[in-house]
Amino acid sequence: MIKVKSSILVISLCMIFVFGLSLGYLGSEFTESELILINNEKKILSNSIDNESIKNLKIDNYINFNNESEIYEKRTELLNFIWNDDNLPDILPNSVQNDFEDSRFDNLENLKKIEKLEIIMKHEIKSYPYIFFPEQSNGNLILFHQGHSGGFINSKSTIQSFLNSGFTVAAFSMPLIGMNNQPLVEIEHLGHVKIFKHDQLILLETEDFTSMNYFFTPVNTTLNYLEKNYSFEEFHMIGISGGGWVTTVYPAIDTRITKSFSVAGSLPLSLRIISDDVGDFEQYNPNFYSISNYFELYVMSSFGENREFTQIFNKYDPCCFAGEISKIYHDQMNEYVSNLSSGSFKIIIDDSHSEHKISDKMISLIIDQTLS
């Protein structure tokens, strides 16, 4: 009875929303928080309606691993696609600034120093990760990846939470975002083009180069630097939104990552049934996902000794991947990974808020799991 009333309420809200739009005075009828709630409920309703047609999805129809050795083979295929090599590149940053000062982070607690890396990639596309070293360290490193909303300064409070627990934090912004540059690139037959959106990166694709390289090279290069110059017990990875997507894919190709947590990062393409969930080109690049689809990437990021991959979805997320549609494959994926020799997969639905963020509740959970 409660579910019926809830559905009626949601449908009524949506009808009011459409009616308000038709009259052109919606803004005066609802507060901003009410509009967000209506939008989120519309997404959840849309997902629940479409679930009826896809609830019989079987992941075995999409995962093409006959044995564990084929997981390693698939990883090699992806490495070749991204870097034209069977192995991860051993490249290091172009430059490192030790004891770097950035006034935006002056008030961070338990901060010993910041190192700023410069990583220059093809077409002079640059990435500037920061490494935050704590005064009191627990010996573990977290790779934290911000999404499309801006640079990792937007997650300063999240970085502080990890520092408070003694983690060293390597923080990344997505290509072309935050402090990362937006270069002017000369493209044959097109002239000089300013590259400032991810969808434009397809213009840089050639037979022997993929723009997917730009999303993973900064993480790999930073890890190489840290391995060479410091000693950490474990590397973990956390990302939000587009950074959650990077956190979905990168652990699949680099087994140095132990535990990874993707927040509002991805769904299998067949379950992206509303426009907000489609994402930029990197999320559906056909050449990449013809090698490994999302179900296979989830397996690869989960598989391995002491390795875990966790997807976290904000049930009322105003941006993307809201709702509970991931429940369709959760149990199946969990069972699949549990039948491997090692590894762990899980999904968590966070209903504690209605924002596009990593909630305090999930940060506490992540810290607890990485320290366990």
Q: Strand tally, please?
A: 12
Rg, please?
A: 21 Å
Oligomer: single chain
Shape: globular
C-alpha end-to-end distance: 41 Å
Percent helix: 25-40%
The CATH architecture of the largest domain can be given as 3-Layer(aba) Sandwich
- Count of helical stretches: 11
Please provide the ordered H/E string of secondary-structure elements: HHHHEEEEEHEEEHEHEHHEHEH
Name the CATH homologous superfamily of the largest domain: Alpha/Beta hydrolase fold, catalytic domain
CATH topology of the largest domain: Rossmann fold
What about the largest sheet? 10 strands, mixed
Which parts are unreliable, with pLDDT below 50 for 5 consecutive residues or more? Answer: 1-28
CATH class of the largest domain: Alpha Beta
**Mean pLDDT score, rounded?**
90
Q: How many independent structural domains?
A: 2
